[in-house]
């Protein structure tokens, strides 16, 4: 689990006691370990959303992450490909494709965060999503969703008919 996870929980209201912090930290480590076990399936947007909120909420800089899935939507791997500033990150489709092929992924879930907490996709978000879906499609890699995480919520391109 990333070192900054407790700092990422800053979006939670109120103060936490040391015992509460310890309990949450242990729970997050356990969840993270189980989600990285071979065969864990992201069979719904909800599952991916919850996992990404836990892992990305409260980040201070924008990050672009990719979850690599097999044909059964089971997690092969997940990684941060690009890190940017407080309000943008540059995404290179070539690198996304290269890593997806490296992992032999049948599908990828794209995700990035908005440190501001606003999850509405920008014009740039929509354009890069279109480019990635087209580029990945050329090598037969599906994109079931692109999620934008902000605070304790996430926007799903799939649920809003934008894929």
Automatic annotation (TrEMBL):
Keywords: Hydrolase, Metal-binding, Metalloprotease, Protease, Zinc. SUPFAM superfamilies: JAB1/MPN domain. InterPro entries: MPN (IPR037518), RadC_JAB (IPR025657), UPF0758 (IPR001405), UPF0758_CS (IPR020891). GO terms for molecular function: metal ion binding; metallopeptidase activity. Residues 41-163 form the MPN domain. PROSITE patterns: MPN (PS50249), UPF0758 (PS01302). This is Putative DNA repair protein. It comes from Escherichia coli M605.
